[in-house]
């Protein structure tokens, strides 16, 4: 990694970062992207990225910088101003042409600015949307990555305590050494509303960067999402009666164990054993 | 002895005529020739053709009406002692496949939630089989890579389940450092597997349970561009690996069709699970132990979440009450102690004992719990629909004949209040023992 030496492309931000590290504020970079409204298809602030900005705003004593890599046109500008309307005066735009691979440019920018925490959404709402960007950045920068956060509990002495969202509403507590990249789950706090005035007053600071083309993407065939075929229930039965039974069957386990004439204690013990085996008791 | 089959038309006529005074006797005689006390339904005709008597099929039911049982039970009984053996053979007819010298490997990293294969994992293994078996003469082998200390690997019964799911080779990477949330250690282990066995494909479930995270990490490490959200794979000779895939892009709003890459993150129902063959689950091991790794991510364990705050549709453990519950205080207490999310049947909601948003069933919430405990619920069809996708159902009920008992994996017949009280006491006692030991 690049040490404290200033990057040639971004001298001013390098100076900012060092001053921030001196005064002890937590330097947070939020990667924001241009989203796509699921119904109208219009550009908007991406839902998960906005949650990421909200997560950054919830951190005490954080100095937040918004970072976007992409082209600036009318549609994307209105979407990016949506993030400015959450209470920011400026947003850094790393200028990239449509169809470019933004990972090298973003990695250069981040290794120059050296934020302690990078927050990103899980996957983009436009383009490939594979969710690989944070992983590629983490691999390039050599930083640890934690996916699917619900909250950041605290940041102390260069160690962040995080709350990761698991399926079924469960949470897991993790500690990670900074600098780190984290991605935000849909279970994180919903983003605040974007205010129109600050959004218009905010500045989009464009920075030029080298463009690397994404070679593979033009070869793909992209179509609007087709409805996935519903899986048919295939019944492999020899006789007509079995097929009819399978088609008309009520839900039944069949092999269930039935305990009759047992004392409540014996019954409770059997249930307790099952709960224990399934691991739902804590 | 002569080959000619001699017939007695008169006897046959008597056998057909139920009202004939000699009917029973003649029937018994004819049955004897078949070896049983019933009329023969099939015999060799005089011209060497099999003849069937459609009237001899079935039996006279309790109301004097002829019934035909097509389940095969009756015929099997008539066919004699072969019945039981025949059933067993039918259950075991899956073809055993052993691939000794695979041409290539397809690696699958299943999620294994709760230590067993999920339906998503099975679909993924079905996809792996499709990739491995494409060339009938040079079949590949499916390697499953499992993590954790003996997660289902120690039990031979579970291993049989692996074979039926389509696993040829099994790599179990166990140890404390890959247990729990340890993406860095798991990534190092998978990289070691890749270095040693070099599978042609890596398949991961694109699920929140860990497969999506691990797959993306591995592809970033290997420098391979993965295909995410794959739901369809087809043959295409023009592509590098001979396959073409379709996956979701742009948050599920577009379909991307491209050549199948090495690392694949597939959605649920990407392929049919294996059902016709069983495979040899041969263990494989890394030649060198994994080097120790200094992790930068530390797992502090799961956080206790207030079960009442978890949405019913995604709760893992539901304690559900119905009309049979009389002691509501005890029920709420039990839910609190067990750490279960509360659910209710429609009757309990209508009677005002539970809020409407706790109703389970067709008109309420469709739940996906791993364990569903139904207390005093008889199991109306609407309710059973709502719990279709639950893994284990436990029923506590007074009525041994109700539909919920038929659905349940474990049913306890008895008074719900006293059983719940005993269960709560058992859980509390066990927690105290644990606390004393600690």
TrEMBL record, chain B:
Asked whether the keyword Plastid is assigned, the reply is: no
Q: Name one Pfam family in it.
A: ETF
Query: Which InterPro entries has this protein been placed in?
Result: DHS-like_NAD/FAD-binding_dom (IPR029035), ETF_a/b_N (IPR014730), ETF_a/FixB (IPR001308), ETF_asu_C (IPR014731), Rossmann-like_a/b/a_fold (IPR014729)
- Stretches assigned to the Electron transfer flavoprotein alpha/beta-subunit N-terminal domain: 106-303
Among its keywords, does the record have Transport? yes
Say which domain of life the source belongs to: Bacteria
Annotated TM spans:
none
| Keywords assigned | Electron transport, Transport
What is stated as this protein's family in its record? Answer: Belongs to the ETF alpha-subunit/FixB family.
Protein name (record):
Electron transfer flavoprotein subunit alpha/FixB family protein
The organism encoding this protein is: Billgrantia aerodenitrificans
Lineage, opening ranks: Bacteria, Pseudomonadati, Pseudomonadota, Gammaproteobacteria, Oceanospirillales
